[in-house]
């Protein structure tokens, strides 16, 4: 199976993909509420592409921008809030455009 077609990855696969230790992934799971991998029947972590994207964002904040764990967590939270606000504004805009077209 090709790596891009997988739905879930285990901890060791993800650690190898992003270039960190598996223990770092488990630590970040406790510190970042955005990072919440699913668990299988044997209680093993199963990471999705979204989880891996969050891990890469954490690593970028930490390594490239020199942020602390607290700073990286705050930055990710702010970005999520901004994305939610943009989605809400787009829905309002679409609603207003729809009303304008009906007039």
From TrEMBL:
Pfam families: MerR_1. Keywords: Coiled coil, DNA-binding. Residues 8-78 form the HTH merR-type domain. The keyword Ion transport does not apply. InterPro entries: DNA-bd_dom_put_sf (IPR009061), MerR-type_HTH_dom (IPR000551), MerR_fam (IPR047057). The keyword 4Fe-4S does not apply. It comes from the Bacteria. Gene3D superfamilies: 1.10.1660.10. Residues 62-92 form a coiled coil. One of its GO terms (molecular function) is DNA-binding transcription factor activity. This is MerR family transcriptional regulator. It comes from Dyadobacter flavalbus.
């Amino acid at each position: 199976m090709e790596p891009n077609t997988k739905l879930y990855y285990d901890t060791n696969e993800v650690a190898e993909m992003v270039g960190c230790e598996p223990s770092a992934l488990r630590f970040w799971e406790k510190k970042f509420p955005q990072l919440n991998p699913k668990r299988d029947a044997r209680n093993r972590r199963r990471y999705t592409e979204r989880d891996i994207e969050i891990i890469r964002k954490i690593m970028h904040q930490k390594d490239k921008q020199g942020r602390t764990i607290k700073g990286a967590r705050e930055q990710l939270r702010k970005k999520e809030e901004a994305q939610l606000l943009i989605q809400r504004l787009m829905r309002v805009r679409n609603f207003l455009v729809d009303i304008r077209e009906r007039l």
